[in-house]
Structure to design on (404 residues):
């Protein structure tokens, strides 16, 4: 197997340390040479023998082992990626404070590669100002800090603070490593971005709705790539059946009205809003309280429709944050560019991603091709390829539009 870049896996003293064993497995199985650097507390949860056997490398927590090899400097210097999972409240504080009181914090100071923190702790430990300020500091410095997931915590309690699944963490590591030298340029670090994904459903009665074919895959690709580029991500997901992207806050909605509420709320402190969701233009004028029955010998009543709010136009007009960039998506079946330009002008957004849909194009597929149209006049054609490649080009365009 081709030798992959060297990875340092830092492990903090949290209950989720056992999940790091699976992350380690995935990293080594994909050909990476991994050096595990646990904290002393981490060894209360998973012992040094496990880390050493799984990584095939020595394991130390302090700077005093193998001093002739100067590990407190060398391990960080040689790393292509440092990932800390779980990152405890204590590790976040020590990293933000620039401490160097064990091997892991020494490695963090000497590493010149991308650093990914995956915090995990009880909600009560995560929410106070101190850890939140430490996270903000680390993000400002260009580290990727993955938002904890919401779910079951140590005991019977649930809430935000769970370590995302090892598979999702591995995907983040892979994405950061794939960016190569550009990964150090975490150009979305310290930014809050809001993405809508999926398709709204407008109820007609308790069992029927007016919907569309959007799977949400493009919006999820935008969320995953934004996490890997260091952003704090809010994903407003309308009727999607995809696993939550690790590191994003996911808000689930059903109708256009619900999506509007969630997006406007999240946009209040956002640096960019990307509307990749297919929001229904119309909804049934009335929603029957009971299932509409068919009546013998009678034609059904026609369905009257009313307009839904135009969320993209509303966002473009509102701009609660100076310099906020608003991006729309347009699915066109004909005259793609001309219709896209007209839509961009009508909505007042900064960028419009126009793609052709229909006949198996775009909806539900893994790949996409599009043109990114800028209000200022530019156009970038993104050739056919994975939805993540298009997502990265969208973020490139957003970054270019932020005021310096
Ligand atoms: C059973 C148990 C579970 C713990 N789980 C967590 C956790 O999930 N996240 C966290 O930040 N701290 C947790 N702690 C507290 C840390 O172990 C403690 O803050 C320790 O000093 C962290 O050291 P380290 O950051 O150097 O690994 C837990 C402690 C115990 C006893």
């Amino acid at each position: 197997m081709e030798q992959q870049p060297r990875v340092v896996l830092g492990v903090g003293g949290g209950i989720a340390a056992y999940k790091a064993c699976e992350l380690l497995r995935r990293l080594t199985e994909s050909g990476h040479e991994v050096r595990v650097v646990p904290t002393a507390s981490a060894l209360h949860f998973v012992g040094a023998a496990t880390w050493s056997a799984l990584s095939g490398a020595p394991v130390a927590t302090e700077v005093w082992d193998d001093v002739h090899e100067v590990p407190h400097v060398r391990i960080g210097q040689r790393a292509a990626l440092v990932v800390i999972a779980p990152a405890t409240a204590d590790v976040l504080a020590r990293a933000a404070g620039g401490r160097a009181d064990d091997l892991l914090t020494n490695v963090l100071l000497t590493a010149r590669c991308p650093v990914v923190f995956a915090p995990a702790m009880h909600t009560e430990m995560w929410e106070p100002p101190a850890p939140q300020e430490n996270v903000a500091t680390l993000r400002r410095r260009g580290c990727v800090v993955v938002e904890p997931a919401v779910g079951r915590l140590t005991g019977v309690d649930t809430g935000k603070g769970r370590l995302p699944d090892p598979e999702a963490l591995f995907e983040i590591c892979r994405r950061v490593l794939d960016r190569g030298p550009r990964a150090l340029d975490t150009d979305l670090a310290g930014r809050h971005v809001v993405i809508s994904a999926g398709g709204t459903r407008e109820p007609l009665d308790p069992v029927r709705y007016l919907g569309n074919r959007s799977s949400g895959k493009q919006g999820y690709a935008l969320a995953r790539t934004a996490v890997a580029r260091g952003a704090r991500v809010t994903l407003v997901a309308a009727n999607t059946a995809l696993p939550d992207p690790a590191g994003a806050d996911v808000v689930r909605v059903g109708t256009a009205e619900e999506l509007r509420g969630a997006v406007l709320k999240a946009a209040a402190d956002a640096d960019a809003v990307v509307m990749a969701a297919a929001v229904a233009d119309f909804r049934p004028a009335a929603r029957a309280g009971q299932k509409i029955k068919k009546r013998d010998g009678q034609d059904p009543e026609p369905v009257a429709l009313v307009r839904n709010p135009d969320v993209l136009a509303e966002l473009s007009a509102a701009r609660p944050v100076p310099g906020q960039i608003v991006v729309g998506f347009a699915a066109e079946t004909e005259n793609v560019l001309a219709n896209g330009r007209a839509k961009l002008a009508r909505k007042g957004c900064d960028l419009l991603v126009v793609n052709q849909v229909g006949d198996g194009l775009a909806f539900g597929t893994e790949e996409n091709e599009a043109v990114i149209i800028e209000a200022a006049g530019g156009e970038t054609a993104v050739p056919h390829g994975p939805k993540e490649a298009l997502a990265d080009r969208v973020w490139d365009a957003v970054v270019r539009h932020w005021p310096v």
In short: The chain has 13 helices and 19 strands. The mean pLDDT is 93. Residues 12-16, 39, 41-42, 88-91, 120-121, 125 surround flavin mononucleotide (CB under 6 Å). The two ends are 43 Å apart (CA to CA).
